[in-house]
Design brief:
The complex is a heterodimer of chains A (361) and B (282). With 361 residues, chain A is α+β, with helices and mostly antiparallel strands. Chain A contains 8 helices and 21 strands. Chain A has 2 domains: 4-233, Rossmann fold, CATH 3.40.50; 240-360, OB fold (Dihydrolipoamide Acetyltransferase, E2P). In chain A, the strands form 4 sheets. A 6-stranded mixed sheet of chain A has the order 6-7-8-3-9-10, with helices on both faces. Chain A has a 6-stranded antiparallel sheet with strand order 13-12-11-14-20-21. In chain A, strand 4 (57-62) and strand 5 form a beta hairpin. The two termini of chain A are 35 Å apart. Chain B is mainly alpha-helical and 282 residues long. Chain B has helices at residues 6-34, 44-51, 55-86, 91-98, 106-117, 122-129, 145-173, 177-185, 190-218, 222-228, 235-245, 249-273. Classes of the chains: A alpha+beta (361), B mainly alpha (282). The A-B interface holds A 50-52, 71-73, 77-79, 81-83, 85, 87-90, 98-99, 102-103, 129-133, 146, 150 and B 176, 178-179, 181-188, 192, 197, 200-201, 276-277, 279-282.
């Protein structure tokens, strides 16, 4: 059993507060992704778990044992670094064996472990090579094999795929997921890439300005963002937000669209994902009179730019003064200047408190 | 003009300078070692050098001095470089202070240490004040060659360790920090990190520092002469003696060839011993 419990961990660098009292539990064998923009503290948190950084406050427990005062090697962890840190003066074999040699294991155990992990990572034919003779993807595999060879109870990964090109990243993503699921190691994985996070994670912890703002499954983070930040950070294109005016009795007016919402507020924000809108009508820009199109159960958006993206078209529109993005069918013949009548899917509409920026139930 | 020619053209003045003031005198010296004034090839000067009673001592002294001084300096420079590299604050100040001796000529360094060891020197007055001795001692007399030797080693270590230190500090700066973090995570102790990561990755810098230092050690002269006078002959001081006291440029040139030969030999050995396979470079 190797669950991780992070209790009120805070980190200050001089006057900067990098982490504000983080509480996080990672279950045994769970694959947790720390997701956030650069500078949000995700790498700092990972390095605190690893012992490469000391927390200013708080405790870290792994497998029921407090480890935040222990040295990295005594924590039962292994780590994959962003730049791989594959030693250039050692062969692939010796790189994978590095941790095992430090544990003073006997040669036959080392041989066995290196063989197993190198086969797992498909680098068993490269064992005699040096790092300089490997491609980025192969180095990445060596770094993962080296970490897995020590059979850690917790595996920490710091943006391990960020230095690979897009195609290779996609390939490694799927492969890592398979390998890690088989190894049943508790994993904490840091990334700024939301696609990577969503495709790999059992659970995503979204970080923002030194705090975890939401920690949930990929689909929940996507569908029900806990804050406006999560909604606009996750999803490409991001969630649309519009200010709503109260028209009494819990009815809200969003630039002409009337919807029932929370009734106990005076101000509120309406939010919807760009793909959760149904296109009900198009008024071409050459037609003069747009008034007759106004209907109270539709949102009216003026198209500014159309981006054909293959699988779909992305329309950047204006609703009132606000930017509003809509995903359209790739066959649609909408062009810039057209006015779209859009109907939001009722169960996908979300409401946010404009003061706290938090989602409303 | 073709732009590819430009670099060569710019190198030309320096190359010309080196040819005139290094290569040409070098050939003259080599010529003098092997040819008589009449232009006949001869090994007579080498025989004269080898047959002279001071040659063996000079060669031995030079080699032993190198063999003692360079390892001490290497170890010390590695230790100091590790300390400096690990410093967060004051790193530059420490480096400046440690490299002060670099700014002093070897003759001046010799004189400083002479001022310490001579009969009316600091060491004597220090020991006398403490009451450890009744009268000034002769540390550097002709009967006490070992003391002269120790004094020279001390002066050389004090004077010339910094040049290795500077090269090694620069080399350590090139080793990515991530390697050490990785080693930390995988359980390498400080000592293991030094032997398994720092030393192998420092090989190129160590190579440069050692070659430079060893060649300079073979050319040790002013410190030896100031502290030892003629009591402790080394190759360089013998060259001086033959050239200016005995007025025999041919034998002096033969000595110079010996210094050149052992310098080349040592350089090759160091290059071979500290080679990094092409594929294992950073």
């Amino acid at each position: 059993m190797a669950e991780i419990n992070i209790k009120q961990v805070a980190k200050r660098f001089g006057k900067t507060q990098a982490l504000h009292s983080i509480d996080l539990n990672v279950e045994d064998q769970e694959f947790l992704v720390l997701l956030g923009a650069s500078g949000c503290g995700k790498t700092t948190l990972l390095r605190i778990i690893a012992g490469l950084e000391t927390a200013s406050d708080g405790e870290v427990w792994i497998g029921g044992k407090r480890i935040d005062k222990l040295r990295p090697k005594d924590r039962g962890i292994a780590m994959v670094f962003q730049n791989y840190a594959v030693f250039p003066h050692l062969t692939v074999f010796e790189n994978i064996a590095f941790g095992l040699r430090m544990q003073k294991l006997d040669q036959s155990t080392i041989d066995k472990r290196v063989k197993r992990t190198s086969e797992l990572m498909h680098i068993d034919s490269l064992l005699e090579r040096y790092s300089g003779q490997l491609s980025g993807g192969q180095r990445q595999r060596v770094a993962v094999a080296r970490a897995l060879a020590t059979e850690p109870s917790v595996l920490l990964m710091d943006e391990p795929l960020s230095n690979l090109d897009a195609l290779l990243r996609m390939e490694m993503r799927a492969e890592l997921k398979t390998v890690l699921a088989e190894s049943k190691t508790t994993t904490v994985y840091v990334t700024h890439d939301q696609v990577e996070a969503m495709s790999m994670a059992d659970r995503i912890a979204v970080m923002h300005e030194g705090e975890i703002v939401q920690s949930a499954s990929a689909i929940e983070v996507y569908r029900d963002p806990a804050t406006q930040f999560v909604g606009s950070f996750i999803g490409n294109p991001p969630m649309n937000f519009l200010n709503a005016k109260s028209s009494g009795n819990g009815e809200w007016n969003i630039e002409g669209l009337l919807l029932q919402g929370p009734s106990d507020r005076t101000a509120i924000q309406f939010a919807i994902r760009p793909e959760d809108l149904q296109l009900c009508g198009v008024k071409s820009s050459t037609e003069s009179n747009t008034d007759q199109l106004i209907e109270p159960d539709k949102l009216h958006a003026t198209v500014r730019v159309i981006e054909p993206l293959g699988s779909h078209k992305l329309a950047s529109c204006k609703v009132g003064d606000a930017l509003f993005r809509v995903v359209l069918d790739s066959d649609s013949s909408v062009s810039a200047g057209d006015v779209l009548a859009l109907k939001p899917l009722p169960d996908r509409v979300r409401w946010f408190d404009p003061e706290s920026n938090k989602a409303m139930a | 003009m073709h732009p590819r020619l430009l670099p060569y053209l710019l190198l030309l003045p320096a190359a010309f300078f080196l040819c005139v003031f290094f290569l040409y005198p070098f050939f003259l010296v080599a010529w003098q070692a092997f040819f008589t004034d009449a232009g006949e090839y001869t090994t007579e000067f080498f025989s004269e050098m080898l047959g002279h009673w001071k040659f063996e001592g000079a060669l031995k002294n030079t080699l032993i001095l190198t063999l003692i001084v360079v390892p001490i300096q290497t170890a010390l420079a590695l230790f100091m470089a590790t300390l400096v590299s690990g410093m967060k604050k004051g790193r530059d100040i420490a480096l400046y202070i440690w490299t002060i001796p670099l700014g002093i000529s070897d003759l001046a360094a010799g004189i400083i240490w002479l001022a310490i060891f001579e009969q009316t020197g600091f060491l004597n007055s220090f020991l006398y004040t403490l009451g450890l001795i009744d009268q000034p001692q002769t540390f550097l007399g002709y009967q006490s060659k070992t003391t002269i030797f120790v004094a020279i080693v001390l002066a050389e270590v004090w004077r010339a360790t910094a040049i290795m230190l500077v090269i090694l500090v620069a080399g350590m700066g090139l080793i990515p920090k991530e390697y050490y973090e990785c080693a930390d995570v995988f359980g390498a102790s400080r000592w293991k990190q030094f032997t398994r990561i720092t030393l192998p990755l420092l090989k190129p810098s160590l190579q440069t520092a050692l070659i430079l230092r060893v060649i300079l050690a073979f050319e040790v002269f002013a410190v030896v002469v100031t502290l030892g006078g003629t009591n402790l002959p080394v190759l360089m001081s013998e060259i001086y003696v033959w050239q200016f006291d005995l007025r025999d440029a041919h034998v002096a040139a033969a000595y110079a060839m010996v210094v050149l030969a052992i310098s080349i030999l040592c350089t090759l050995v160091i290059m071979w011993a500290l080679r990094t396979p092409k594929e294992a470079r950073i």
